[in-house]
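Q: I'm building a small set of examples for a reading group on sequence design. Run inverse folding on the following structure and report the sequence directly after it, with nothing in between.
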């Protein structure tokens, strides 16, 4: 599971995920997943996106070779 310290968030935008991967639950209050936010994180297997996210920017999950699913409400 992810911790708050695994994320860099600015003004509701998830700029960077720095955690170990596995199942990632993006915190509530995020409105956008930024460009290359998860780039090349080979440990990410599943991502849960919260309600309120209205935009996923280009390359957000680029190079996440172990990513199996993204749960969008």
């Amino acid at each position: 599971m992810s911790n708050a310290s695994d994320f860099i968030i600015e003004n509701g935008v998830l700029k960077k995920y720095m955690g170990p991967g596995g199942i990632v639950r993006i915190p509530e209050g995020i409105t956008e997943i930024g460009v290359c936010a998860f780039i090349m994180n080979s440990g990410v297997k599943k991502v849960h996106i919260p309600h309120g996210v209205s935009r996923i920017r280009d390359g957000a999950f680029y190079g996440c070779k172990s990513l199996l699913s993204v749960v969008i409400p």
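The chain has a mean pLDDT of 96.
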